[in-house]
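Students often ask why we bother encoding 3D structure as a string. The short answer is that it lets us treat folding as translation between two languages. Here is a chain of 262 residues written in the first language.
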Amino acid sequence: EQELGCKLLHRGNRGITLTQNGQSLYEHVAIAFEQLENGQREILENVHLKTGRVTIAASENALRLVMLPELALFKKTYPDINIRISNHSTPRALQALKSGLADFAVVTTPLDIEPPMELEPLYSFREIPIAGPGYLELHDKTLTLTDLQNYPMISVGRDTGTRELYIQYFLKHHLYFQPELEASSTDQLLPMVEYDLGIAFYPEMLAQDAIQRHQVIQLQLHEPLPERTFCLVTDHSRSLSSAAQALIDSFRKVHSQQPMRI
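And here it is in the second language, the structure alphabet:
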């Protein structure tokens, strides 16, 4: 009252009531106090994972092979956390992370990162050459990369880490990787192979069911194919929300309890 130079309270035997100026001040203070309480409540809910949002940039293979089971478990534990998954090729997933469009990325090698991005390997996996029933005569043969060039090859697009991997792999053996057919995603490779459109390199784990059903055959290759790794990539120039950090910790926990190879 001394600072404002006006009376804010009526003080009497029956108690204290607000003056008109006091009522006006109270209305403004009440709004500010309510906003402060709401902010404190929101922070507490975020810290205790009762609310929040996580955006993940993920490659197709990473999503299908390693992320889905863990995401399902995380959602059961924290049902109020909203998870948004952006499906990209590895280069585009890393660009989304760099641009701040994702909290973190889960992608496959090969990849090229620079500080402040940091990479953490999660699981390694291998791909195998597969062909359709029309290539049954190749089933019991051990083929070389040179032999494969006598048959149509199928691959994903040029803007993917997978395509670049095999371009470099063939060059290492003084050959060119020139697929005749191009798919827009790994998902499309299997049906194209099943219909005898060509030979493709495909994740072994995803091919097993089709092999057991005799829809495709696994080819034996003399040269060992390069091993690939699923990696967690974070940008250390930005802080993570409690929800994003909890999900990352969940991936790390599962990784530490399971073999590196799938």
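Translate back mentally: The chain has a mean pLDDT of 87. Keep this in mind for the problem set.
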